[in-house]
TrEMBL record:
PANTHER family referenced in this protein's UniProt entry, alphabetically: ABC TRANSPORTER PERMEASE PROTEIN YPHD-RELATED-RELATED (PTHR32196)
Transmembrane intervals: 51-74, 81-100, 106-129, 136-154, 174-193, 224-242, 278-297
Localization per record: Cell membrane
Entries under InterPro entries matching the protein: ABC_transp_permease
Protein name listed in UniProt: Ribose transport system permease protein
Length: 328
């Protein structure tokens, strides 16, 4: 890069960081306001049982959000995450029932998920398709594979050993292992995204791919490996779900991509690429969880929940579009 390009890049990064911190601060205020309001509306809201349920509800999805956020930053999107989560469960469960130990079966399930990401990355970087079409096709294909492997019947895995079940059902001094794993994953990737040089290439590629290419960044490789990472984290989440529920359901995760994308966009990740943070995406996930919990405690029909989440997503995307148009 030339000195001018470096200066412009640093200025852009500072502006994006400032915008991101403002978005995150705003989300924290909204979440706190909702919590205060709900504490008056329902005596059950500010209880450890309710907060534990909310944390458990979004912790595993939060692992998938991490991969989706990085993919959105690079300028991509993955509609297949729900199908990949289910396929990881199905492959791992089927191998366990075939006689393989659950640990090896789970590693194979995660590896297969990574392979799905590699296939999508190939079609995006080599064939030249965009992420939307590629992941849409993968979503349908992988879901079909789930149904083929299980013949449409959930796999009962009640014979899983206690040590493996502890991942999804156990706790350490009252804190579920699921939440601990979630916090570790978020902390590691948030640090890497903010500090690691390799992950800065994700922002450069998403902000201006041509300029990134001229500066020597192999943007196709960046896109490929980020796509693989997204599917791998989805596969990892699938293994945790299998451990938690003791089953592998071929239809599990249908519609999950809505929550994942909504959380990332609400948290500041742009559908145009080039901006976003892991912390912001997790705050977006937390906001959706608080909204869902509030609707349940207020005894509002479950049929309204998807509509309300869709409205929140539409509002977040509209704000993102207006911000980018104003910046342009």
């Amino acid at each position: 890069m030339t000195a001018q390009m470096k200066s412009e890049s640093q200025g852009a990064r500072w502006n994006l960081a400032r915008l991101g911190s403002m978005r995150e601060a705003g989300l924290i205020v909204i979440i706190l306001a909702l919590c205060i309001a709900m504490s008056f509306a329902s005596p059950h809201f500010l209880t450890w049982g309710n907060f534990r349920a909310m944390l458990m509800s979004f912790s595993i999805e939060g692992i998938v959000v991490v991969g989706m956020t990085i993919l959105l930053i690079v300028g991509g999107i993955d509609l297949s995450v729900g199908s990949v989560v289910a396929f990881s469960m199905v492959v791992s469960g089927a191998l366990f029932l075939a006689g393989l130990d659950p640990w090896t079966a789970s590693l194979i399930g995660i590896a297969v998920s990574a392979l799905i990401g590699a296939v999508m990355g190939f079609f995006v970087t080599v064939v030249g398709l965009n992420h939307f079409i590629t992941s849409l096709a993968a979503m349908v294909i992988v879901r079909g594979l789930c149904l083929i492997v299980t013949k449409g019947t959930p796999l009962s895995l009640f014979t899983l050993p206690p040590a493996f079940k502890a991942i999804g059902q156990g706790s350490f001094h009252g804190v579920p292992y699921v939440i601990i794993i979630f916090v570790v994953v978020v902390a590691v990737f948030d640090f890497l995204l903010r500090r690691a040089t390799a992950f800065r290439k994700v922002f450069y590629t998403g902000s201006n791919e041509k300029a990134a290419q001229y500066s020597g960044i192999r943007t196709k490789q960046v896109k490929f490996w980020v796509t693989v990472l997204s599917s791998t984290l989805a596969g990892f989440a699938g293994v945790i779900y299998m451990s938690r529920f003791g089953a592998a359901t071929p239809t599990f995760g249908a519609g999950m991509e809505l929550n994942i994308i909504a959380a990332a966009v609400i948290g500041g990740a742009s559908l145009n690429g080039g901006s976003g943070t892991i912390f912001g995406a997790i705050l977006g996930m937390a906001l959706l969880s608080v909204v869902t919990s509030s609707l349940i405690l207020l005894d509002i029909s479950v049929y309204w929940q998807d509509m309300i989440k869709g409205c929140i997503l539409l509002a977040a995307v509209s704000i993102d579009h207006l911000l980018h148009r104003r910046k342009a």
